[in-house]
Design goal:
Layout lengths: L1 E5 L5 E7 L2 E8 L2 E9 L23 H4 L27 E5 L18 E9 L17 E9 L6 E9 L4 E9 L8 E13 L6 E7 L7 E6 L3 E6 L9 E9 L9 E7 L4 E7 L5 E7 L6 E3 L4 E3 L2 E7 L2 H16 L13 E3 L1 H4 L5 H14 L3 E4 L28 H10 L3 E6 L3 E2 L4 H5 L19 E2 L5 H17 L4 E4 L21 H19 L4 E4 L9 H6 L2 E3 L6 H11 L8 E6 L12 H8 L3 E5 L7 H23 L1 E6 L11 E8 L5 E10 L7 E2 L9 E4 L5 E3 H6 L2 E2 L8 E9 L1
Parallel strand pairs: 21-22, 21-30, 22-23, 23-26, 26-27, 27-28, 28-29, 29-30
Antiparallel strand pairs: 1-2, 2-3, 3-4, 5-10, 6-7, 7-8, 8-9, 9-19, 9-20, 10-17, 10-18, 11-12, 11-14, 13-16, 14-15, 15-20, 16-17, 24-25, 31-32, 32-33, 33-38, 34-37, 35-36, 35-38
Helix pairs in contact: 7-8, 10-11, 11-12
Bound molecules: (2R,3S,4R,5S)-2-(hydroxymethyl)piperidine-3,4,5-triol (DGJ).
The site of (2R,3S,4R,5S)-2-(hydroxymethyl)piperidine-3,4,5-triol has 11 residues, from loops.
Length: about 750
């Protein structure tokens, strides 16, 4: 997978063949430069691709190349990990400030110039676990990792760049380790430490950055922004990856579609403040970078210490966005998600949040559970409100003790009764939060994030616990473990309902307070790790006011995530298709809820709500005791259908046929269509949703991903089609639709 050659100057060229892609870098005049990434190429000597141009006199050039190579300048070179202040004026991936140690003065102290030069490389089979942060994993047969060591010749700072190439995935995983090996034994402050940076030359035609924007209840909508000279970026400073921007962007061109053109996806495995940026220089080189947001971040590194960045994942496709997404789906489903539930079939659940909100007791819960059992549902999830004095969102976060005024029979008995109905039982927590009105806050007012002497912002009547503190994490572990061991709890919904403000940690010395945001994320990972290790049988579902922390790092601990608090089926089409740019169906938790919808007030048929919710980990979120017999019969049918479709949806390949914003066949209202195809192409499931109909619409849907030589039977009508005909001429779905109609077509190879 990784081949090493030498250039005419005798410097190494590294060719990483990953899946059907190539990623090539080389050493030139001692610098580590990027040569190519994209569809696999056979040529190994790609040094001719280097950007070397005659320079204006204003552009400084390195002294050691000045006479020998008049065309080389750091300001146009395509760096693999661009440093700061030594001739490359574009955004840098790294910036460090050398500090002064007591009684040890240095000419470097207080300066931020860094100059990285290649020193050596090593290739190892597999993918070494660099530290405990979430990362993709792979066996020795599945991957190879190139580790390149660079050094600042002046200070002797060491930077190690990790690149993993895969046998089966067109992807490269990158992360960076910064070591304070500086010769003068000075501490240093890391001001920027990106996970990855790639300089792309000549992206034609017009390059664009595709990214996922959103807000609460409107997460991950696809947007394409044309790149212009200067920087386009998406980021978070909220302490969570956030509803507003996802830690993902793709470099595409204006011609990239679902099926054609280049798409390079960059996804950051991180749950905190991040930045992904694309900077276009005057020569058309696009520098794509991803990493921890340098805003509100510094990290003190004492002599001998190292800093490991989060991992960034690059995925290449020369067949449009669809192929890029399918690579992310497979990689994340099988090499990022972990634990028993990675591959196990997930239960169909009912959650009581939209059914009862805080207004429930054990009898109400049992009455919903009885109906659930009668409808074939497999798990009951008790959401917010079971602990402390939590009868509204105004109190009790942190008081993780069962409220026996509501759960009068006690948790153990309640779970036993639910289990006796044949249902599993799951429970909601919001570990990182504390209500000012709580026993926990009374006992430990200093445990929340705050800056002494500064007013605290409040959101949903809650503060955020300081997850950088070991005592806070120990308390949460002890309380959650006690509850989880007290009854047969087989699922946990881990919520996180506000962003971080007044971020400072009293226990950290002043020079380390800017580490708090990142330490908070590491603290959350540590707690997640302890709990998932102690309770490996529990299915963990992530949540953050819906999908406000739906990122790859969370999937490392929780194989499914509550996609959005917006359960309206029409809204969910956009949200789920946007989410599917990166995240697999098996990770998207999707529920059928009541109508009029609680978020939008819209009425949609039960059938359509079911069809849309079957786009992921399926469940219900409504009061089953308030449904008609006809609706309950529909639930039985939907649960049965979902079982039949489970494999193709959750383990198959996704093809997005019509995105909601596409203009389909001229102008025929607003519709969307997607399909899943099993890996062996023996089965496919098409979902078609008409959000807004028009007069006499004509729909021929050209399917994708089928075996062109095979014949497929429509399981409902029994009609047989040829695979190639379905893909070339399409499936005729012309009929009369009303707003919000949907249909599902299940095809099986004959
Ligand atoms: C926000 C979540 O997204 C909801 O599903 C629900 O769990 C509430 N929090 C409970 O407070």
């Amino acid at each position: 997978m990784i081949h090493v050659h030498h250039s005419q100057r005798g410097e190494p060229i590294f060719h990483l063949k990953s899946g059907d892609s190539s990623y090539v870098l080389s050493v030139f005049h001692g610098y580590l430069l990027h040569l190519y990434c994209g569809a696999q190429v056979s040529d190994d000597d790609l040094e001719y691709l280097l950007v070397q141009i005659p320079h204006d006199s204003v552009v400084p050039r390195p002294s050691h190349t000045y006479e020998e190579n008049k065309w080389f300048s750091c300001d146009a070179a395509t760096f693999e990990y661009p440093a700061n202040g030594c001739g490359d004026f574009r955004p840098s991936a790294i910036a460090v400030k050398m500090m002064e140690a007591h009684g040890n003065s240095s000419a470097f102290a207080g300066t931020t110039a860094t100059d990285l030069r290649y020193v050596s490389y090593e290739i190892v089979n597999g993918k070494p676990q660099v530290d405990k942060q979430p990362a993709v994993y792979a066996s020795d047969e599945e991957a190879q990792t190139l580790i390149i060591t660079c050094e600042d010749p002046a200070t002797k700072l060491t930077v190690k760049l990790y690149y993993t190439a895969f046998r089966d995935f067109s992807a490269i995983c990158r992360r960076t380790v910064i070591e304070n090996s500086c010769k003068e034994q000075l501490p240093l402050d890391i001001l920027r430490a990106y996970s990855a940076s790639v300089d792309f030359t000549s992206i034609e035609p017009q390059p664009q950055l595709l990214h996922l924007w959103g807000t609460w209840a409107r997460e991950r909508h696809v947007e394409r922004t044309p790149l212009a000279h200067g920087t386009v970026s998406v980021s978070s400073k909220r302490g969570a990856s956030s509803h507003y921007h996802n830690p993902f962007a793709a470099l595409v061109t204006e011609e990239t579609t679902e099926t054609h053109g280049m798409a390079v996806g960059l996804s950051l495995i991180y749950s905190g403040n991040f930045e992904i940026s694309a900077d276009t220089d005057p020569y058309g080189t696009v520098r794509l970078m991803a990493g921890i947001n340098p805003s509100d971040f510094t990290w003190r590194l004492e002599p001998g210490e190292s800093f490991v960045t989060p991992e960034a994942v690059l995925v290449f496709s020369d067949e449009g966005l669809g192929k890029m997404s399918r690579t992310f789906h497979k990689l994340y489903r099988s090499h990022l998600c972990r634990g028993e539930w990675r591959d196990k079939t997930r239960p169909v659940l009912v959650n009581n949040w939209e059914a009862t909100y805080f207004d429930f007791d054990d009898e109400k819960i049992l009455s919903i559970a009885k109906e659930a059992a009668d409808c074939g549902i497999e798990m009951f999830v008790l959401d917010d409100g079971w602990f402390g004095q939590r009868n509204s969102d105004k109190s009790s976060l942190g008081d993780w003790f069962v409220n026996e005024d509501k759960i009068r029979c006690g948790m153990k008995k309640l779970v036993e009764q639910i289990n006796a109905l044949g249902l599993k039982f799951g429970l909601w927590f919001e570990p990182e939060m504390v209500s000012p009105v709580s026993e926990l806050y009374k006992a430990h007012p200093d445990w929340c994030l705050h800056i002494e002497g500064r007013e605290k912002s409040i959101a949903r009547d809650q503060y955020v616990l300081d997850m950088t503190r070991q005592d806070v994490r120990d308390y949460l572990f002890e309380r959650m473990s006690a509850i989880l061991s007290s009854a047969n709890i087989e699922y946990v919904k881990w919520d996180f309902n506000r962003n971080l403000t007044e971020v400072g940690s009293g226990w950290l010395p002043a020079e380390r307070r800017q580490e708090t945001f990142h330490r908070f994320v590491l603290g959350t990972y540590e707690l997640l790790d302890r709990l998932t290790t102690a309770f490996p049988q529990i299915l963990l579902e992530g949540c953050s006011s819906g999908g406000g922390r739906y990122d790859p790092a969370m999937l490392y601990y929780s194989p499914q995530y509550w996609t959005s608090d917006d359960t309206d089926a029409m809204e969910r089409v956009d949200i789920q298709l946007g989410t599917s740019m990166v995240y697999p169906a098996s990770s998207m938790s999707c529920h059928v809820s009541a109508c009029p919808n609680h978020q939008t007030g819209r009425m949609t048929s039960f059938r359509t709500r079911g069809h849309v919710a079957m786009g992921g980990a399926f469940g219900y979120e409504l009061d089953l005791t308030a449904l008609s017999d006809e609706e309950k019969e529909l639930i039985r049918q939907q649960v049965d259908e979902y079982h039949r479709y489970y494999n193709v949806i959750n383990r198959g390949d996704l093809y997005r046929l019509i995105m909601p914003n596409d203009t389909y066949n001229g102008k025929q209202g607003k519709c969307a269509a997607w399909m899943y195809v099993s890996e062996d192409k023996s089965e496919a499931l098409l979902t078609f949703v008409v959000m807004r109909t028009s007069v006499k619409p004509v729909y021929f849907l050209k399917l994708q991903g089928l075996d062109p030589m095979a014949q497929y039977r429509d399981e409902e009508s029994g009609r047989i089609y040829h695979g190639d005909t379905l893909m070339k001429a399409g499936l005729n779905l012309t009929r009369r639709y009303t707003d919000g109609d949907s249909m599902v077509v299940h095809l099986k190879k004959v």
